[in-house]
């Protein structure tokens, strides 16, 4: 990577994610509880989500006070530099609440609307994933590459479920019909981690409906820089209707199956 502007953004994202990950790992209260709910009573926010986002935005603002922000827990400002930080301070909040290890800090930087830097910090795995547009993807300094493409019926695919009951019910129907066409399905509880697992060759594919920009901004770039294909419905980018990431050869048949099964609507 030779662009000094992107080097600066990557270094800042890495340090902000490291600090937030350490706060979440080491500062988790024994009596951690729910601070608020979002789309439903089981879609929760903890005090640690809020504290981690404040840490990240505060750190980045110290160095780049005029940049914009979009954060899951409310950080929102347009900025004036053309750079916007897209932040999920704790992806996998329910896992974190229950003491499960699959959660991560996700930070992406956009330049003039294009994602150029992505960092996912997974403290309980002791793994830091990073990517710069055109510069490849890495975990703990090691280059990442997605798996060679198997036939769809030998693909291991991960997904996630919405916290709104009627949406989740349809997602379960889609998964039930999809399972016989695959090797198997996994559900980790963190879209950011799933996307990095596609990049690292631990999964052949991932799909989910209902994701927000902060859920997938960093992980999508990391997966693509590792050689995976990403998108939404056929011909469209990943969005709230559908996000798909998979190794080449799995992507198109998986995307077609999801379109056929109506994975993009409730």
From TrEMBL:
Enzyme nomenclature, EC number: 3.1.3.25
Cofactors, names only: Mg(2+)
Protein name as catalogued: Inositol-1-monophosphatase
GO molecular function per UniProt: histidinol-phosphatase activity; inositol monophosphate 1-phosphatase activity; metal ion binding
Catalytic reactions of this protein: a myo-inositol phosphate + H2O = myo-inositol + phosphate; L-histidinol phosphate + H2O = L-histidinol + phosphate
One of the Pfam families matching this protein, by short name: Inositol_P
One BP term from GO: phosphatidylinositol phosphate biosynthetic process
Organism domain of life: Bacteria
InterPro entries xrefs: IMPase (IPR033942), Inositol_monoP_metal-BS (IPR020583), Inositol_monophosphatase-like (IPR000760), Inositol_monophosphatase_CS (IPR020550)
Gene3D superfamilies registered for this protein in UniProt: 3.40.190.80, Fructose-1,6-Bisphosphatase, subunit A, domain 1
Residues binding Mg(2+) 2: 90
PANTHER family xref list: INOSITOL MONOPHOSPHATASE, INOSITOL-1-MONOPHOSPHATASE-RELATED
Pathway named in the protein's UniProt entry: Amino-acid biosynthesis; L-histidine biosynthesis; L-histidine from 5-phospho-alpha-D-ribose 1-diphosphate: step 8/9
Residues the entry annotates as binding Mg(2+) 1: 72, 88, 91, 215
Key words of the record: Hydrolase, Magnesium, Metal-binding
Described purpose of this protein according to its UniProt entry: Catalyzes the dephosphorylation of histidinol-phosphate to histidinol, the direct precursor of histidine.
SUPFAM superfamilies per record: Carbohydrate phosphatase
UniProt record similarity statement: Belongs to the inositol monophosphatase superfamily.
